[in-house]
Write a structure and sequence with these properties.
Blueprint (H helix, E strand, L loop, with lengths): L4 E6 L3 H4 L5 H18 L3 E4 L13 H11 L4 E8 L5 H14 L4 E6 L4 H5 L8 H17 L3 E4 L4 E5 L13 E4 L3 H10 L2 E4 L4 H18 L8 E9 L3 H15 L4 H5 L12 H15 L1 H6 L3 E4 L1 H15 L3 E5 L7 H15 L6
Parallel strand pairs: 1-2, 1-11, 2-3, 3-4, 4-7, 7-8, 8-9, 9-10, 9-11
Antiparallel strand pairs: 5-6
Helix pairs in contact: 2-3, 2-14, 3-4, 4-6, 7-8, 13-14
Length: 357
């Protein structure tokens, strides 16, 4: 691990998207924030893909990031994560390669499988097979980026001398990230020499999982530097600790279930996690986040306070976990725009410089 890098997380929840009858108004606000983040010294900017969801409503992430690329010049951009089972992998490979060119080599390619069953049901996709689908899709994407032609006979996709263009701007391809929660996903990323990201587990669990990832990676005896690790957390910075809590606490407790009622009242309804050990732990975390501010704080899921307090907490957390990129989510739940913008600025002006040495 080298010098800590800082990223901005942008979620686009259903509540926020409903604040204007025209989605372009919301997009314009966020594009301005991406420009602001670049000016403030954030190293990278990330969005997340969800389909049929209240959680995030950037359903065409590459399209949106093309707009970000045209309004910025140096901040790296990425989707953390693309939901691979929802794509024809050959089309996604070409789409991402074109985005890499339009950003002049600034793309970070985040991959994952998705965790909510109702998102898959609505597109007639087999939720229980999403891991196998994702592995096959990523295999095809790497081939499309590195081979002149791709012939592939898989379980889910078949190609006969496909001729994917363009090849990525970055060679051999953009950095590949795996959103990894289960040990199987961590092992997969380690064996493939991919970077790993996290956003949901509590700090102690993230520390254990990242160390497990590094252990498996070392056992593989890959050449070159160790892949990087990424952690996203809710962040709210204000003038004092008291003001920060007063502004953040009601928003944090409302944020987990905001918009879920609309999905629950549909014919298919809201169908969440499976019954795996990883999913049961995430369900415990989600329950704690919905009921207790202290649960967020005590488990490192949110960093709330003055610039001095957030800087101290961030240093303690990074020493415990050992990550390369910290991604700050200032826009969460029904947080008023002026408060999230204040937090973004204070973090950029006073917290990031504290790690410059």
């Amino acid at each position: 691990m080298g010098k800590l890098e800082f990223a901005l997380w942008d979620g686009f929840g259903k509540h926020e998207m409903s604040l204007s009858p025209v989605a372009a108004d919301i997009y314009d606000q966020h594009l301005a924030e991406a420009q602001m983040a670049e000016e403030l010294g954030y190293n990278s900017y990330y969005i997340i893909e969800h389909q049929n969801s209240h959680v995030g409503q950037i359903t065409a992430p590459s399209v949106y990031l093309c707009a970000v690329a045209q309004r910025t010049s140096k901040i790296r951009i990425g989707v953390m994560i693309y939901q691979l089972p929802f794509y024809n992998p050959m089309r996604l490979a070409e789409e991402a390669a074109m985005l890499d060119h339009l950003s002049h080599g600034r793309l970070e390619f985040g991959t994952g499988i998705g965790v909510h069953e109702h998102e898959f049901i609505r597109w007639n996709l087999p939720f229980s097979e999403r891991q196998k689908m994702s592995s096959e899709a990523l295999d095809i994407i790497i081939k499309a980026w590195t081979q002149d032609e791709v012939t592939y006979d898989g379980e889910y996709w078949k190609f006969d001398e496909a001729l994917p263009v363009p090849k990525p701007y970055q060679q051999p391809h953009p950095p590949v990230w795996v959103g990894a929660h289960s040990h199987a996903s961590l092992e997969y990323a380690a064996k493939k020499n991919f970077h790993v990201s996290q956003n949901l587990d509590v700090d102690t669990v993230v520390a254990e999982k990242f160390e497990y990832f590094r252990k498996v990676w070392r056992e593989c005896e890959h050449p070159g530097p160790m892949p990087r690790t990424f952690l996203m957390r809710v962040v709210h910075v204000a003038e004092t600790d008291q003001i920060a809590r007063e502004e953040a606490e009601p928003v944090m407790l409302a944020s987990r279930n905001l918009g879920r009622e609309g999905l629950a009242n549909t014919r298919i309804g809201f169908k969440g996690l499976d019954d795996s050990p990883t999913a049961r732990e995430l369900s415990r975390v989600f329950q704690g986040m919905s009921t207790s501010y202290d649960f967020w704080i005590d488990n490192g899921l949110a960093l709330i306070g003055s610039p001095e307090t957030v800087t101290r907490k961030l240093k303690e957390q990074s020493e415990l976990i050992g990550y390369d990129i910290f991604c700050a989510n200032h826009r969460f739940g029904p947080m008023p725009l002026e408060q999230s913008t204040k937090s973004l600025k204070l973090f950029g002006q006073e917290v990031i410089p504290a790690f410059a040495g």
